[in-house]
Specification:
single chain, about 425 residues, mainly alpha, about 80% helix, globular
Length: about 425
């Protein structure tokens, strides 16, 4: 039985038990919550424990690998630059559309706070730019910033350090890259151990949520699924005009070319499984040259997940709305920056691990509580379908765009 299925079972049993206690077991409700709450919080603490060092190690290794690839091939360098711009644009789309969606389709009144495992949350004031505010991002003491959970400072230091590693001697660069890769591998083992206990942790958290909010918890989860799916659909739809304009291809032709790969992505939730169909589309209807396709498609599958910053920032925005945490303009700007950067840390990781390594830092950077994330992970299967479809669509679009830019450059006098 897969981990996803076991987590879903834990969620369902926890919610059912909590709701049953709230409705018919008032005499045992307080005792059950008193036992389940520390179990859930202990498991959540275990998930947070490796988060900061893991993000740092993954960003450093990701930067060094991307820089080496970009230096080795001009098309690859152009593709990576395009990936970075589109990831930032995708995160910005979530920052604009997410709050608007929650105004038009707010969290159901009975579900507000239903998934907040830690009780009332203090309001997070709007952050306004100032000299002191800007200086606060400079990690004067990176170790202290990491210990205090200052994610933006840690991410900034990881970026600076990662690019610095790419400028040192080859043998020393390989030594440092190998060290951080080994550190990331070890930390992923720790995360795997914690996730092995996910069904128990999710059961405990769901029991507490169900006992406190009853059926409102289920309503919040369904509303959350619809919210994230809508954000993914919005970004996917924006890919089509991008492909048509920048890729110089007719809309109907791009739709026909993308459909087989999208169908596989929808059914498998795997970009890699969709690769054969994407190769056929690139060689056939899209008319991409093999020299471009053989470089851009593998890079896109490895580094470029356009829905990742959108959906992950959407999670933070939803949790903030669910807990009544107001998000000012600067919280959203921070969220956009961190969401775009840490999407690189999701390279090659299982979806369960990816969810925490990408959404956790965004929530921490924006001052949003993370207690609800384990329950949201349990229902990530449906949003993940639409994430994958959007990623495959964007992979095909950027492959066509990069190829066309190379053709225009070759034809230029």
């Amino acid at each position: 039985m897969s981990l996803t299925v076991r987590i879903l079972i834990g969620l369902a049993l926890g919610l059912a038990s909590g709701i049953a206690l709230a409705e018919w077991g008032a005499a045992w409700e307080a005792d059950a919550v008193a036992i389940a709450q520390p179990v859930g919080k202990a498991w959540l603490g275990g998930l947070q424990m490796p988060l900061i060092p893991l993000i740092f190690a993954l960003l450093v290794t990701g930067i060094t690998q991307a820089a080496a690839t970009a230096r080795g091939n001009r098309i690859a360098g152009r593709a990576i630059a395009l990936f970075a711009m589109l990831l930032l644009a995708a995160a910005s789309a979530a920052a604009l559309a997410g709050p608007l969606l929650l105004r038009l389709w707010p969290v159901p009144p009975g579900a507000v706070g239903a998934l907040a495992g830690a009780g009332p949350v203090a309001e997070v004031p709007d952050v306004r730019p100032s000299a002191q505010w800007l200086l606060g991002f400079i990690p004067v003491n990176p170790l202290k910033a990491a210990s205090e959970g200052q994610v933006v400072a840690v991410v900034l230091f990881a970026l600076v350090f990662g690019f610095a590693v790419t400028r040192i001697a080859t043998d020393r660069r390989a030594l440092l890259a190998g060290f951080f890769q080994a550190a990331a591998d070890a930390l992923l083992v720790v995360v795997g151990w914690v996730l092995w206990l996910a069904p128990l942790g999710v059961f405990a958290l769901a029991l507490v949520a169900g006992a406190r909010s009853g059926l409102a918890t289920a309503g919040a989860l369904l509303h959350y699924i619809g919210f994230i799916v809508l954000l993914c659909v919005i970004v996917t739809l924006l890919v089509y005009p991008l492909a048509v304009i920048a890729g110089r291809i007719g809309l109907a032709r791009f739709l026909r070319a993308a459909l087989p790969a999208q169908a596989i992505a929808f059914s498998t939730q795997s970009s890699i499984a969709s690769l054969p169909a994407m190769i056929q589309a690139s060689d056939g209807p899209l008319g991409v040259r093999e020299t471009s396709r053989s470089i851009v498609l593998p890079l896109a599958i490895s580094l470029f997940r356009i829905t990742s910053p959108t959906a992950n920032l959407g999670v933070a925005i939803y949790v903030a709305g669910m807990n009544g945490v107001p998000l000012g303009a600067m919280q959203l700007v921070l969220g956009v920056a961190v969401a775009a950067i840490v999407s690189l840390a999701a390279v090659g990781l299982p979806s369960q691990i990816t969810f925490f390594t990408t959404t956790g830092p965004i929530c921490l950077a924006m001052g949003v509580p993370v207690e609800a994330l384990p329950l949201l992970l349990a229902v990530e299967t449906v949003p993940d379908i639409f994430r994958t479809v959007g990623n495959v669509t964007a992979d095909l679009a950027v492959t066509r765009i990069i190829d066309q830019s190379s053709v225009r450059e070759a034809d230029a006098p």
